[in-house]
Amino acid sequence: MKKFLLVCSLSITILGTALHGQDIASAIGLQQYQSNSFNGYTLFAPFFSKTVYLIDNCGSSVHQWTGNYFPAASVDLLANGHLMRTSNTAINANPNFVFAGGGELVQELDWDSNVVWEFRYSDSLHRMHHDFKVLPNGHVIFPAWELKTREEAIAAGRDTTKLPDGVLWSETIVEVDPEMDSIVWQWHLWDHLIQDFDSTKMNYGVIAEHPELLDINLSGGQTATGGANWLHVNTIDYNPMMNQILFSSPFINELFVIDHSTSTAQASGHAGGNSLHGGDFLYRWGNPQNYDHGTAADQKMFGSHSVKWIPQGLNDAGKILFFNNGPHLDGVYSSVDIINPPIDNYSLGQYVYIPGIAYGPAAAEWSYRAEPPTSLFSPILSNGQRLPNGNTLIVSGINGRILEIDPEGQTVWEYINPIIHTGAMAQSDTIPVVSGLNANLIFRATRYATDFAGFAGQDLTPQGPLEIQDIFTTDCSITRRQEILKEWSALYPNPASNAIHIELPKAERNAVRIYDALGREVMHYRMENQSLDLDVSRLENGWYIIQIPGYIPQSVLISR
């Protein structure tokens, strides 16, 4: 395997020195690289390109996938080295659903860009869009628009003055089994509506008394006039610990959690599944005025993108991180925020709700704002990602900017996408504007560790920067400490009941912390020698993470 770690060949020998890659400033490519950046490879799909790029921390291309389609809009790497992507031939490829983010296919490409699987979901009544998530069993879930006629909308209680397009695009979540090449589960928003406009309809009710349902007469954001695309779901995620699905709407500024343990029949109703609530919302957050639990002053989400649970093993695991696009109530800027949803009953997957009081928390637990705040603003696209070393990767999609910040909020790595609709730009070029938008847009980017399973056996030799170099540049090279996490000697039993025994390779004093599935610290021990017996008798049944600095985090199941 030719895997080139990001270590110097022509070294900058002072650890911690920032690399500003060019003697003459360039508006594209690598802008900054400091020694405490997380060592890995960054994947992104330029909005107007059919090629997906993987770069190292020096901004050098290490691999590319080229297909026949444009992104629509997400891409991700699988543990087998294959690329998953949503794809379209054009935004207007389906004349019934013409809007940015619209797709036609979910595709799996091998390392050499060969299509090994694809699933089409685009017809006169449906169109997949924006995002997907591969589940632990290999199934794929994605959001899709679902066409509802004027008659169907009125029958569901839609205010006739909010039908200027004559139709509504409702939302559905589709689960596909690639082995069967067919849909195996589906959830329809249309089954979970309420309204207080037309008392003759079956779903008429008091909206404030039913936060588990969505008011069909909501409109906001780009749908202030009640256009067909009234929700525009742009994110989907899955929590394997709770078997729940998370999705978000930037147009009504809210995120939602539903139960995935249901059957399709149960998902259409209000009972069943682990939560006992069928397909109703288990949790919602961001804009409580949507269910008459607040006013505009209580809104916390603003056009948000990439609303995702932080995975296990990372700082703040189990909490929800998102790019809060803005403008915010107090200014024109974007932020990256983290909230910690309050759990009422973990085993049932139910959240704390007090009738008449909006779902908590009252505010974000953590938030990053640039200095000055206006220096980070992307009203569309974008994402954030918590990294294993505690840093956070951030994408300002509207200007193709990817940056990494450390826990103190300092920028330690920055890169500007140089790929536009005509191909690679030269360093001296000015980024062009197409239809009022920068031509180097990207939807999101993802950083993968150098030891990611999908890279095993692959050639990751740096091929040089993506941009055309017409300015003299300094070689990207930096001395850095490689982060190597050590193996434990023993951890047993697992599953455990009341006690867990752990051993390390050598005696040492170290902190031992136990976190629950939502990333909350529930126990804290001090290790004084080589082994330690942990009393976990007071922990409830469920999954936990044990972390010791310098060692690979371990997951354990408490079961009695």
List keywords for this structure.
single chain, about 550 residues, mainly beta, Methylamine Dehydrogenase, Chain H, Immunoglobulin-like, 2 domains, 5-stranded antiparallel beta sheet, 2 helices, 41 strands, disordered N terminus
Let me know the average pLDDT.
89
Proportion in β-strands: 35-45%
Count of all domains: 2
The total of beta strands comes to: 41
* The CATH C-level class name of the largest domain: Mainly Beta
CATH superfamily of the largest domain: YVTN repeat-like/Quinoprotein amine dehydrogenase
User: Structural class from helices and strands?
Assistant: mainly beta
The total of helices stands at: 2
| Main beta-sheet strand count, sense and barrel state | 5 strands, antiparallel
Assign a percent range to the helix content: under 10%
Description:
By secondary structure, this protein is an all-beta fold. It has two domains: 29-455, YVTN repeat-like/Quinoprotein amine dehydrogenase (Methylamine Dehydrogenase, Chain H, 7 Propeller); 490-558, Immunoglobulin-like (Sandwich), CATH 2.60.40.3080. The protein is built from two helices and 41 strands. It is globular. The relative contact order is 0.14.
